[in-house]
Amino acid sequence: MEGIEWDEVQSVLLSGFPRRTWARFLLLRVISRSRAAAFVGNLLEKRSMRFGWRGRHDGECVVNVAFTREGFEALGVDDATLSGFSPEFLEGMAAPSRARKLRDVGESEPARWYWGYDATQIHLVLMLYANTEPGLAEAITSHRASFQSFGLSEVVGPTGEDLGVTLPLAVRREHFGFADGIVQPLFRDEPEGMRSHPAREADRLATGELLLGYLNEAGIFPRTPFLSNAAKAKDKLRTLDGDLGRNGSYLAFRQLEQDVAGFWQSMACIGTNATVEDRVRLAAKMVGRWPDGSALVTRPEQHGPRSADPEDFDYARDDPHGDRCPLGAHIRRTNPRATLSRDPDVGLAKSKKHRILRRGRSYGAPFVPSMSPAELVHAADAGGGNPGPRGLHFLCFNADLANQFEFVQQTWINGSVFQGLHGEVDPLVGDPSVSGGRYSIPSEPLRRIECLRRFVQVRGGAYLFLPGRAALEYLAALGST
To answer: Is the pTM of this model over 0.85?
Structure first.
């Protein structure tokens, strides 16, 4: 679509670098404003940054960068300009009001985080993506060697361990053993030829749902920060009307630790003498997919025939009562599709206003190398498996933290009233202290289990902003003012 400045957008938002299987997230704090601003300028000058759709596969290692509110402050962005960012971003993920909304409680409360709280708050995250493990290691070494001279320090874990480490999983699954990242929203107006397969209209979003400066699904522009008059007097910004947010997006970054052994042990609650097949079936009923990624709606039996287009379905049309995919299943809660209204068109329109774009990466060694459900179950029962920790560095982009990421987390994942259900939450990633571990599987006869616990704990997190190219140039220039 003419008018969308794709070449100004950091590429991680557009593609996620799927071919670059090696990645690392370096969590940093600013020690010197002028030198840190020079660091941003150096990234731009060395052309290690990637923008737009094309060229994202060039080079051994590429870089993108995002900043917290504290990071913008440390670089010299004035308060009047900062006030234009969203209240959620300004408060930060670890703020008590945000933690209550996100159900970051108990072991997941911010005071227990490895990073992102109090003294371990971060100012920026440097996202590195490489084709090979040696290429990534070389890039990390090179950047670390420059941090002190650029006035930056790296945030480490409570015992001095590295943070932000990722590990590609050979079978492209998450640690519970299920295929992940199957359905993602796409830009409705992205250039032709950017996808190997055509996207369904149900997954196409207005640009403004994911990118500031453009109209969203409601036909309005999302809130964006503009330079204050004082800031404009010092430095000019190469965007329309001093719009600092244009071509940028909010990033919710959370380190989610997965209890793989506990997850598969809990699947035994399906009944006495439950077989491996019984436990895998229960797990699939909780996720909404079989481990290979097949949706229960189009393939209700694990070994049944595959549909010609396995993702061409809608719950409202194909499974309104949850007989195939339970009403509270993880994929149904995180993307209800057209079920939010009796009119499917209205329901889909509502759903699109809350979509998020995920760009996460796994960390830690697999519980068992094969990651097959049968071996995961056997290792969990035997008290074996590789020791942890392991989990997901969850990264998602959205133009409106409150209406997208936080809405999904509070209303759909941890909402105890959802699609006619009462007193239940997402069985995979929700907080079961709300539900007592209850989960319903509509079938004949109705089955209700009450043995689920929290399988995913938050170990760190932050709200960041991914600036467009012009905003990065502005930040680099702050060091000289």
So the answer is: yes
